[in-house]
Amino acid sequence: MNVELENKLIEAFPALFAGRHEPITQNLMIFGCECSDGWYDLIRDFCFLAKLRLDSAEGVNKKKNKGTKSGEYIDYPAPTLKLVQIKEKYGTLRIYYDLIYPESVEELDAQIDIEDLRKRDGRIYEYILALSDYAMQASMRTCEITGKPGKLYTKGWHRTLCLEEAEKANYI
After folding, report:
1. Are 137 and 28 contacting, i.e. CB atoms less than 8 angstroms apart?
2. CA 20 – CA 82 distance, rounded (Å)
3. Among 62, 113, 105, which residue's Cα sits nearest to residue 80?
4. Other CB atoms closer than 10 Å to residue 87's CB: what's the count?
5. pTM over 0.90
6. Residue predicted with more confidence, 142 or 156
7. How many helices (H) and strands (E) are present in the chain, helices listed first?
8. Average pLDDT, stretch 11-27?
9. Going edge to edge, which strands form the sheet with 92-100?
10. Strands 80-89 and 33-34: what pairing?
């Protein structure tokens, strides 16, 4: 992906791209988005919806603390998402990530209903996994070069291309 588009993603979602300066043994975002510009919108939509889900988890997690007589509310800390790698594989977009849970959860064990927290975090994980799967499926119908409607071609290299780009690349 060209640097300008990648920088737009980093500016819009700095927390998701926070691992891009980590060692290569921990995070492969040092290589940037290893795909063509046509999938920019799919990546942006994934980032937007994932961030929206995590932000909403932070605000909705207040629950009465059963361990206190005052009935005060506590915040269940939400996980954060760190992108690990974005690339093309077999002609489709792949988005790899880590969900990172705050260490404070362990300190709050006595106050938090851990079963509720696991259910909530399971739903977050399933939602983000579904977003990733959706981006991959949508990339099979989106030209990796232009972003126009396309289809997956399997002549030699697997590529998802619109009709014009497929003709240029001799896939038709």
Report:
1. no
2. 9
3. 105
4. 15
5. no
6. 142
7. 5, 7
8. 94
9. 33-34, 80-89, 92-100
10. parallel
